[in-house]
Write a structure and sequence with these properties.
The complex is a heterodimer of chains A (125) and B (299). Chain A has 125 residues and is mainly β. Chain A is built from two helices and seven strands; from the N terminus they run E-H-E-E-E-H-E-E-E. Chain A has a single domain, classed as Beta Barrel (OB fold (Dihydrolipoamide Acetyltransferase, E2P)), CATH 2.40.50. Chain A is globular and about 40 Å long. Chain A starts with 6 loop residues before the first strand and ends with a strand. Chain B contains three helices and nine strands, in the order ααβαββββββββ. In chain B, strand 7 and strand 8 form a beta hairpin. Classes of the chains: A mainly beta (125), B alpha+beta (299).
């Protein structure tokens, strides 16, 4: 399902914290007081240093497909937590929660994901 | 300030020879008794093996992760801008000049534009920040040398325990991890570090809040596994140019599950957050390789 859910979960924002550990750069580009919920399909999972990135294809209200860049922790940290390069296989439909970028560009800091079978990864409470 | 840990080294074999000598000369006159007194006094000195055997060094194997956040000064973790009142909690005892510099850095940190050299991918983290990193650590111990190996970076620090001393001042120069020499006191590694880069020239920064030290920094560290099983490093930092008193900071590391692995960390493998070293701006690169955000929106 490729529809865009631009739900702004402000009420939940304070209950969630990002799992991204930004070791070597500022995270000032992210709005940590907002949580955005995005439904789409995985285009690519970059399991790379210094941070992993999930490229998510999301169809907006006008039917346009927008590619979101969602930043996560280092693959080393994630690997020790059980995450693998295959965890987000291309074409997988899922919903991701992220702290969006302040300037409105399609990017954010990954918080958690829920797959169509209900399985969740990261923080989803 | 004496940067040397040099002292009289009385090894265990030497003590054994002394004891035999004392056993042989007990029936001689006062001069011999004086000699005995001197030898007995020497025997009261700490017995330090110049280079211990592998069996005499502790087992620090395994994979360890630092506990707590990557902020060196816990006081700065409180609120936006942190607790910036001098003397509060672990706030470093800066002199007026360095307190002003630190406050200026904190203000930049709050705007997300602190030009932290650690953000540039490729510059070593340096000491003491090497003991303040995310990801995991290994502590490799041999009789002659200890290596602190941080996955993040990666960063490596060498501590010589073979009895050598620091090079003479004319024969050393500032580096990121400086020059460290140490010895064992039981299962505690005590090491002395000098010749560190100053934070002044932008080459290094003590943590991501902008803590600074000068090229006069001198650190004595005590490192051991505490009763709770945590690797604990207590660093006593002195800096005649920046601090008005010694600043003591303790970092702890928890051993990870058996079999945990350490991986490569290649900061430039896919660094999609380049930092402008002049402005401190952190950009974000999109899927097409182009910058997708605008600095003005980061405020």
């Amino acid at each position: 399902m490729k529809h865009f859910c631009s739900t702004l979960l402000t009420a939940c924002a304070l209950l969630l914290t990002t799992t991204v550990v930004l070791a070597h750069h500022s995270d000032a580009m992210f709005d940590h007081e907002q949580v955005r919920e995005l439904s789409g399909t995985v285009k690519e999972f970059q399991f790379t240093n210094p941070h992993a990135w999930i490229q998510l294809s999301v169809t907006d209200a006008k039917g346009k497909v927008v590619e979101w860049s969602l930043e996560w922790g280092s693959p080393n940290q994630l690997g020790r937590q059980g995450i693998r390069p295959s965890t987000f296989a291309p074409g997988t439909a899922l919903t991701i929660r992220a702290n969006p970028m302040k300037d409105g560009t399609p990017g954010g800091a990954f918080i958690g994901a829920r797959f169509s079978d209900g399985k969740t990864i990261g923080r989803w409470d | 300030m004496n940067h040397s840990i040099g002292r009289l080294v009385v090894t265990k074999p030497t003590v054994r020879v002394m004891r035999k000598f004392l056993d042989m000369q007990c029936s001689f006159g006062w001069s011999i008794r004086l000699t005995s007194a001197v030898l007995l006094a020497l025997m009261q000195l700490p017995v330090q093996a110049a280079t211990p055997t592998q069996a005499a060094t502790p087992d620090w194997s395994g994979v360890w992760a630092m506990q707590g956040g990557t902020v060196f000064d816990l006081a700065t973790q409180t609120g936006k801008g942190g607790t910036t009142t001098p003397g509060v909690r672990e706030h470093p005892p800066y002199n007026k000049e360095y307190e002003a510099k630190y406050q200026a850095n904190l203000a930049l940190r709050d705007q997300g534009i602190l030009p932290d050299p650690n953000s540039l991918c490729g510059i070593p983290t340096g000491f003491p920040r090497i003991l303040n990193l995310p990801d995991v650590y290994e502590f490799a111990v041999t009789p002659q040398q200890v290596w602190i190996i941080a996955e993040n970076g990666p960063n490596v620090m060498r501590i010589y325990t073979d009895g050598r001393q620091h090079p003479a001042p004319a024969d050393r120069w500032p580096t990121h991890t400086g020059d460290s020499v140490g010895h064992w006191e039981g299962d505690t590694l005590v090491f002395d570090t000098v010749s560190l880069h100053s934070s002044e020239n932008g080459r290094t920064m003590v943590d991501r809040t902008g803590l600074m030290l000068s090229d006069a920094a001198h650190v004595v560290s005590r490192m051991h596994i505490n009763k709770a099983g945590l690797m604990e490093v207590q660093m006593t930092l002195e800096d005649a140019k920046a601090l008005t008193a010694p600043w003591v900071v303790t970092k702890q590391f928890k051993q990870q599950e058996k079999g945990a692995r350490v991986y490569d960390y290649a900061c430039n493998e896919n660094n999609r957050n380049p930092v402008d070293p002049k402005t401190g701006w952190t950009y974000t690169i999109g899927p097409d390789g182009r910058i997708i955000d605008q600095p003005a929106a980061k405020k």
